[in-house]
Predict the 3D structure of the following.
Amino acid sequence: MLPKLRAVAAQWTVVVPVAAFVVLVLTWKRDLPGWGVGLVACFLAGAVLAAVHHAEVIAHRVGEPFGSLVLAVAVTVIEVALIVTLMADGGDKAATLARDTVFAAVMITCNGILGLCILVGALKYRVAVFNAEGTGAALACVGTLATLSLVLPTFTTSSPGPQFSTTQLAFAAVASLLLYGLFVATLTVRHRDYFLPVTEEGEVLDEDDHAHPPTTRAALAGLGLLGVALVSVVGLAKAVSPTIESAVYSAGLPSSVVGVVIAMLVLLPETIAALRAALRNRVQTSMNLALGSALASIGLTIPAVALATVWLSGPLVLGLGPSHLVLLALTVVVGTLTVIPRRATPLQGAVHLAVLAAYVVLAVNP
């Protein structure tokens, strides 16, 4: 009996996605009691962790920087599906959900994940080193996409409030998708070496020496289980979302906190993956994960939400408020000053984390 239990424990990444999918089928469109919500939340957390594990298996097989791209896209698929499903059920109260979730993802990735990985890497190895060409290009894309999608709606006059007109929304969606596509092409084809880890002397590390890559069969199995885990995550998150919203509103917190909670839930496993890379002195991989996820969050979410407005009712508010505009500008400036020297100390990591802390405080108490 004990060997069987050990075998099950060793294969939790296989068992959990399948079990989570079964729970999804059993609980779909049902009112859940408190214990049921708790059970669903446990399987949701397990499915998220399993999804990232299988994404890492695939990433290890295809190599860096393709691995970071797999993780970023996998996480963003979860985020996009959550946003669209919650907007479909939320009506007018979900008008700002896409904006809040995307902005939360940008702040968490560009300040939280990036700052934490710099801090950990610099504390362990004295300085955190990375490739400024690739990181700077990614940061420039993040700043441009965030401005086109989240800043401009605040200042346009064609529609009342911080909203895009239909033409403006279509332009923002197409521009986001094209810029993200160009970034992926740069990352994977033309300038792949710009996104590879480097030594303190600037030498590119093209090989991942911490483990042997999995077989093709294992990678394909991981791809299938990744799909099962992602479907389970989306469905189970939809089941617990009313409880999250009720808890936020009962506590008297702003509705934007719902977006923060969703972003933190989705990005937690990716944060763990980035920290693992930083502890191996692969801070460039951490940068790829953080900035790549921010880019995917905007570049894929905005087109998906724009397409969803064809059948979704209610307004779509994308423009940021004054305090968030200041935080976004500060994030871009601080990120630029961090990237230029090609290396960072614990101070730079602490500065990014301070910006994230300011964002969380203002989200709870605007």
